[in-house]
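Work package 3, deliverable 3.1, input record:
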Amino acid sequence: MRRALHLRAAAPYLLLLPGLLWLVIFYVYPAFQMFLTSLWTGNLDTGYQQTWNWGIYQEAISEYWPWLARSIVYGGLATVLAFALGFPLAYAIAFRGGQYKNVLLFLVIAPFFTSFLLRTISWKIILADSGLVLGPLKEIGILPEEFRLLATPAAVVAGITYNFLPFMTLPLYVALEKIDKRLIEAAEDLYAGPWRPQGTLAGVAIGGVLGLVVGLVMDYGPFALSIPFGLAGAAIGTWLISQAFIRVTLPLALPGIFAGSLLTFIPAVGDFVNAELLGNPQSLMIGNVIQARYLQVTDYPTASALSFILMLAILIGLFIYARIIGTEELTGASI
Amino acid sequence: MTEGRPQLPVDITRRRFLQGTALAGTAAFLAACGTPPQTGGGSASSSAAASESAGAGASASASASAGATPASSGTLRFANWIGYIDVTEDGSSFPTIEKFQTETGIKVEYSDGAVDANETFFTSDLQAPLQAGQPTEWDLAVLTDWMVARLVRLKWLETIDTSLTPNFVANLADNLKARSFDPDTNLAAPWQSGMTGIGFDKNKTGDQTSLDVFFDTKFKGKLTYLSEMRDTVGLAAIRQGNKPEELTQEQFDAALADVQKAVKDGIVRQVTGNSYVEDMAGGGVVLAMAWSGDVLTLLVPDQKPDQDFQWELPKEGGMLWTDNMVIPKGATNKAQAERWIDFYYEPQNAATIEAYVNYVCPVKGAKEVMLESDADLANNPLIFPPDDWTSRLHIFRGTTADEDKSWSEAFTKAMGL
């Protein structure tokens, strides 16, 4: 009898064991190794010694902060853009998908059936200087002949946004799908009704500001993108935003927003494939630096230190973000 | 000129791309949208037949080399890049390997693609065991010059016993003898070479013969550099009248300064590995520092009516890089590896492999053999460069440990890293 009780009490821990082991072997141990490596000095030929050279962290940050900052800006922009695209998409599927829900969801993940790299390379074809997108626009004279998207920061952010869009959309869909539609009806009965003009205005404002930020970061000037982004925001806002949306739908979708933005932001910041294939020497990210330091320069300590710094920066950001959004919403509020 | 050539999509997979992360993906992609594998009318299939008949009565040169005591049994573990040896149409076997096995009784464990990038092969397969003084899992590996130079420096290579490899001694192309990192020509046996020069779309750029065009604003934003330090800096140094074979620190700095300025001024659109091929095909890039094989095997077959892709060895000179067979320190089957090296340097065997891989052949006499089976291929300057080309080709010198680090560091900085 006692033994059975013991077992029952131990069961949760036993169930945790495989996962914990996995984490220890494939995460904790390598991370610790990486930390030790960052404190080596030496080179490939004479060998490396563990010298606890803490100064390397300061050196790495002072030398590479522009790449770190750029990665965070690009990753952040891609996350916001993926949200702006993914939320209406997830909302439409969850609330208006009807019998086509599964088909639509399948379409969202369909790109995952090809490799990450292949998808990125196809963007080279789509965005080519006189390709599918730019060719016709140049033909009718909207864009100047020498305008290009490839080998620009815009292409990098667009590539990251595209590649991680499903990571944003799926958690949002799950959160939205769980919402009890009667709550929204109840809210509407309680005078949280449609809100069209204000919805349109809110959409314009969000789209306009986003366009302004993207335009400035991408060097297209403050207004070039504000207008198309504002128009798109107006359309989405009119359709989506209402009192009930702000008071019911959005708060209930918070866990999805939290999960989706993390799943997008974390890999986006560390990504190097998009910058390598779609960017130029002025738009390379911290992932490219780490790769070059490790493989080309064989400067393992700096590469490790940079990886560690990136990890810490993301962890700290995550902590602050979780504090702001609040862990309550993540655990219980949607029930 | 390329009419009669077997255009095999595997050609492209040899060169590094994204420093290795990406090889398989691009290969599949390019293979899918690129040239369909044609029935290799002349060379590929007939060479398979030829190798079978030759296998029956072990060739004369092999028995000639039996003066010492070459290995005649055992195993050879051979790591090579993907698509870098002749293969049967259905991909099930490698005719030249089969021939070697029949002739020598040595069993070959050939790995097609164990090497996918020099850097990653070094970290994954060589570094740990060799640092600990243990043998690696390989008896023979094909690696590029600069990696060979690093391994020589680290003393991680076995010396090839040249008394057992008379074909290698007799048939190695002269310009590949006594290279700076292998002065006695007994550490690395060239497998294939390639040239780095100017790739361009003649319809957009006109004829190009000078390296000056890479530093001129005329094609600003429409040209690319290579992410290989030795290619890009080498070409810049040649343009300044210096020799990559004996580059000094000052000359390196001067060459890099030019490169850095061009990157900073936005003349250089991107610094790429293999991916300049897609950019050129898409039309965004009209001029590139390019590897000889890429332009003819990848770009020309699929060019649009308004495109005319060309590859030119610059009048100032171009770079020659080589992938070499090396024996890692402590290799268990060194004698078998030497036997293979000798076998490869028989012109007949080199020609068979050459007809398939289409890079620059390092074996003297292979051209003569190939003239009989496929004259077009044998007369292709990109496979058998004529003498006035050879004299303009430069090999980047082996670098010291400090240079290796500080030069690649300076280069990656200039490239925006």
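Chain B touches chain A at residues 18-22, 25-26, 28-29, 117, 119-120, 123, 131, 150, 153-154, 221, 229, 263, 268-271, 275, 278-279, 282-284, 401-402, 404-405, 408-409, 411-412, 415-417 (CB under 8 Å).
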